[in-house]
């Protein structure tokens, strides 16, 4: 036989080794597939037959019947009943809630301010009902007013106004409101809390006060430095500071002293939102119809509720405020209480003024002192009612001498005017500058 060297043997063995390495994984995979198919077929054939015949029959006959009759029936009857009690309480029970957590009160506030979206929109109560003190007329009642009105009422009463309003104005404003009983209860809870919070006051402007304090401090420091310390070598700096601050302090004190007791621009909020623009302007109501004592008395007087009832016995809904403001007048009459109007024009006690003298004798119209009232929704003080303002009016206003009063008491002026000696007589000519006419 042919003998092979060691190198030749290695030469033939190496390819066999590489082939075995490559074919071994393939063979192992095929064996696993074959094993799994056999094992699975056997297992499934055995287990399915045994299990399906024994276990499934037993389980389905025992477990499913028992579970379906006991577990399902119990769960559906008990759990669903409990959930419906918790989450689907009738509105009559929800409206009787009186205690609320801090989180619920916060949600009620957010609902009131329109910060919570209900479905696709939010309901913003603050858009109509002010939560801050305002110097402009808002025909809608503020948040404090409606909160006080419903303080002694329940949430169901509030729901009627929100969801089923009666008046035409309320129907227009509250149209499309979609609030659940829970939402209304939370809004009512926040409104009850708002009664004690009140309207937010506007911060006072302290510009002049702050400047006065700064100027006073500079004045004091400059005075001390000028007399004692002498920090500034050039004394002209101290004198300049003293001069500027002294003039400013004097100006502030004089201006505010003159304005002391005067209330030009004063426009207080009234208990009923009465508009002179609607009554005197739009409806052409004569001023003397309501203020009928202006022609015969010292004061113009505040009309009683019976005068209001002459029209509002039939007119129960306003075009701007609905029935809210008119209802206040009717309630005051039913309660036999006078409406507590806030007086705007007020003279000091040492000044005498008569409406009869000016309106009847002088023939002066209302707008001469009270401004164009026919355009005012919210009445305010037009003039400062100072003595200088009165005297300037007396200097420039002519006296109607054809008036019977002046014919009798100032016949000399009347005769001179009739003879052509004078063309007119000012109020100052008939005692308009005499101190005793107004101060006695």
Helix content: 55-70%
Tally the beta strands: 2
Number of helices: 19
The shape, in one word, is flat
Element order, helices and strands?
Answer: HHHEEHHHHHHHHHHHHHHHH
Structural class: mainly alpha
Mean pLDDT: 80
Number of domains: 5
Rg value: 47 Å
N-C termini distance: 164 Å
Q: Classify the beta-strand content into a percent band.
A: under 5%
- Runs in which pLDDT lies below 50 for 5 or more consecutive residues are 29-86
Question: Main β-sheet, in a few words?
Answer: 2 strands, antiparallel
Give the neighbour order of strands across the main sheet. Answer: 1-2
Protein described:
The protein is an all-alpha fold and about 450 residues long. It folds into five domains: about 80 residues, no CATH class; about 100 residues, Cytochrome Bc1 Complex, Chain D, domain 2, CATH 1.10.760; about 55 residues; about 120 residues, no CATH class; about 55 residues, no CATH class. It is about 60% helix and about 0% strand. It is built from 19 helices and two strands. The protein has a two-stranded antiparallel sheet with strand order 1-2. A hairpin with a 2-residue loop joins strand 1 and strand 2. Helix 4 packs across helix 7 and helix 12 crosses helix 13. The longest helix has about 80 residues. The termini are far apart. The relative contact order is 0.05. About 15% of the residues have low confidence.
């Amino acid at each position: 036989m042919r003998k092979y060297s060691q190198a030749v043997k290695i030469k033939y063995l190496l390819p066999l080794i590489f082939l075995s390495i490559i074919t071994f994984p393939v063979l192992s995979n095929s064996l696993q597939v074959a094993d799994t198919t056999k094992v699975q077929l056997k297992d499934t054939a055995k287990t399915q037959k045994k299990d399906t015949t024994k276990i499934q029959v037993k389980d389905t006959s025992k477990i499913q019947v028992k579970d379906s009759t006991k577990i399902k029936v119990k769960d559906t009857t008990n759990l669903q009943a409990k959930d419906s009690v918790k989450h689907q309480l009738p509105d009559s029970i929800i409206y009787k809630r009186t205690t609320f957590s801090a989180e619920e009160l916060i949600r009620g506030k957010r609902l009131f301010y329109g910060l919570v979206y209900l479905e696709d929109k939010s309901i913003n109560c603050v858009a109509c009902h002010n939560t801050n003190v305002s110097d402009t007329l808002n025909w809608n009642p503020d948040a404090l007013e409606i909160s006080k009105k419903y303080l002694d009422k329940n949430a169901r009463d509030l729901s009627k106004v929100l969801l089923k309003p009666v008046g035409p104005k309320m129907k227009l404003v509250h149209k499309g409101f979609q609030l659940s009983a829970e939402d209304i209860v939370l809004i009512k809870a926040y409104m009850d809390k708002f009664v004690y919070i009140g309207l937010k006051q506007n911060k006072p402007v302290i510009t002049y006060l702050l400047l006065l304090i700064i100027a006073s401090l500079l004045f004091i420091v400059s005075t001390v430095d000028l007399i004692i310390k002498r920090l500034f070598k050039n004394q002209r700096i101290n004198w300049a500071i003293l001069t500027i601050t002294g003039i400013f302090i004097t100006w502030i004190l004089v201006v505010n002293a003159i304005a002391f007791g005067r209330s030009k621009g004063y426009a207080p909020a009234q208990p009923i939102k009465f508009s002179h623009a609607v009554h005197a302007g739009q409806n052409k109501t004569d001023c003397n119809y309501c203020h009928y004592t202006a022609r015969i008395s010292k004061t113009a007087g505040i009309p009683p509720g019976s005068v209001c009832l002459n029209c509002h016995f039939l007119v129960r809904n306003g075009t701007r405020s609905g029935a809210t403001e008119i209802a206040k007048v009717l309630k005051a009459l039913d309660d036999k209480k006078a409406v507590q109007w806030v007086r705007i024009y007020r003279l000091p006690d040492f000044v005498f003024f008569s409406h009869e003298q000016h309106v009847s004798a002088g023939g002066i119209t209302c707008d001469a002192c009270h401004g164009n009232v026919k355009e005012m929704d919210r009445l305010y003080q037009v003039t400062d009612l100072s003595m200088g303002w009165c005297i300037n009016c007396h200097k420039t206003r002519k006296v109607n001498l054809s008036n019977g009063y002046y014919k009798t008491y100032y016949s000399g002026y009347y005769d001179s005017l009739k003879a052509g000696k004078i063309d007119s007589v000012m109020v100052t000519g008939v005692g308009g500058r005499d101190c005793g006419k107004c101060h006695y």
